[in-house]
Each structure stands twice: as structure tokens, then as C-alpha cells.
Amino acid sequence: NKKGNNMFKKLLVATAAMLLSATTVAGISLSGLYEGTLDSHGAYTQDITTTMKGTAGNSSVTVVLDGAFDVHDMYVETTSGPLTFTLGDKSGDDPDSVSIGVTATSGGFTVGLNQVSGGSTTIDVGGALAGITFAVTDVTASTRETTATYAVAGVTAKVVHNTVAAGNNIDTTITTTLGGLTLSGNHDSNADGTSENEGSVSKDLTGLGTVKATMSKTSAGVTAKSFSLTRGIWTADWTKTGTADGVSTLKASLAF
Which pLDDT belongs to residue 96? Predict the structure, then answer.
């Protein structure tokens, strides 16, 4: 469901325009991401996400607009010592929800309490211990998600695990750089018994851009391979999945 009606949207855009055109814009920031893709059939699709943030003292209000300039997220944050309070919709790509939360940080560890409007309170924790960076979402739930990252001798390993009714979902990624090549391997195992393996190699070529080759195979035997070249905001890509014809795209990605 899209948030905000047309009247609110027009009021919000008008207000933002006045703020940004004012002589003094201290405490106001504007950022976003534009992406446009041209496929091999000549079709061009585009999207933009815009974030406006107003800051006063130790408090701020953030509004995130989608490509139709409808409100995607809107929340206020304020900090007092080690505590950060958040109120509003900060759900991102998750289903829309308004919540109130507080996060405490001490000694490199973070504990957060969050309550969705009309719902129960969840507890999130994160930090670093013995060289392992970890984050656990909704600690007390059986479906909690745990992310752990460990880096040593130029190799980074990341594991994401969560439990669902059917079993466990485990996603493992290992990356490293060797001889100017960035190597990455991923194994995604799902609770329903399906899985996928993926590997990639990329290299930055002076004067040309970053070249990347990726190959994957699912437990059903479906293979996919892609080759891409990224230069500046542009990425040219060719991808072939299974027996289907290869698809070429040209993508522009600009963060501001």
C-alpha cells in the first residue's frame, strides 16, 4: 500500500521546494538514488528514491520518497547520551509499519528495543566479539535472524541464518582479493530443500572500467552466467539463464 494521499504529497513537495530554495538551508540535506535500465528490446525503465532530512540539535526528521513521490518512510530520531529514540515508519523494503524504538550503545555493543504500533516488543542486539561482527534481529523469537561476519588475512566470510517453520535458511558468502582479482563465492541453502551456488570474479582495468563474470547453478540444475562492464555510472550487462536467450542491458546508476 502506498503511503500518503495526493494532498499530502503535494504539500510535502511544496514544503521541500520552499526549504531548498530558501537563503539559509542549514540543517537540511537531500540525497537519493536514480536508476535507469535499457534492455535489448529497447524498453527503458527508471526509478528514483529521494531522501530529505532536517536536523535541529540532536534530533532529526527523515522523509523517503519513492519514484512516484509517495512517502515510503517517515520517522523522527533524537539522541540523548548513549540512547537513540526513533518514532515513525522506518521499515524500508519491509512491510509498512509505524513503531517506536530505543537503541543503547556501549563498549561496541548495541541493544535495541522496538515496538510496532499495536504489536509486541522485539529485541535486537549487535556488536563485535573475538573478531566476529554480529547482529541478531528479534532475539527472543524462534525465527530470529543472525548475521555474523569474520575477516582475516584478506578473506571475509559472512553467514546469515534464520529459522522458519520448514527448517533453516543459511546464506554463506566468502570474498577475497588475489592478484588484483576480486573473488566471491556464495552458497544459499533454503528450508524447503532448494539451494544455489554462485561464484564471481571481477577486476578493475585502468582506462576501461570494472569487468565482472558471474556463474551460478541451482539445486534444480538451472545455470546462469553473466558478464558486465561498469564505467562511471554505466553498467553494460549480458545474462543468460538456462536455455533462454541471453539478455543485454545498459544501466545508469547515480547516487547524489
Answer: 84
Distance (Å, whole) CA 180 – CA 199 = 17
Question: Residue 26: what pLDDT?
Answer: 52
35, 128 contact by CB (below 8 A): no
Query: How far is 177 from 183, CA to CA, in rounded Å?
Result: 6
Rounded to an integer, what distance in angstroms lies between the CA atom of residue 139 and that of residue 145? Answer: 8
Reading the block at residue 52, the C-alpha cell is 530529505
For residue 14, what are the contacts with CB-CB under 8 A and spacing of at least 6?
Answer: none
Q: What is the spatial distance between Cα 88 and Cα 101, in angstroms, rounded to a whole number?
A: 9
Grade residue 130 by pLDDT with cuts at 50, 70 and 90.
Answer: confident
pTM: 0.78
> What mean pLDDT, rounded, does the chain reach?
90
Residue 9 near residue 70 (C-beta atoms within 8 A): yes
Please state the rounded mean pLDDT for residues 12-23. Answer: 47
Q: Give every CB contact of residue 77 below 8 A, 6+ residues apart in sequence.
A: 59, 60, 61, 62, 84, 85, 86, 87
Q: Which CA distances in Å does 192 have to 82, 83, 187, 227, 253?
A: 42, 40, 15, 30, 35
DSSP symbol at 227: E
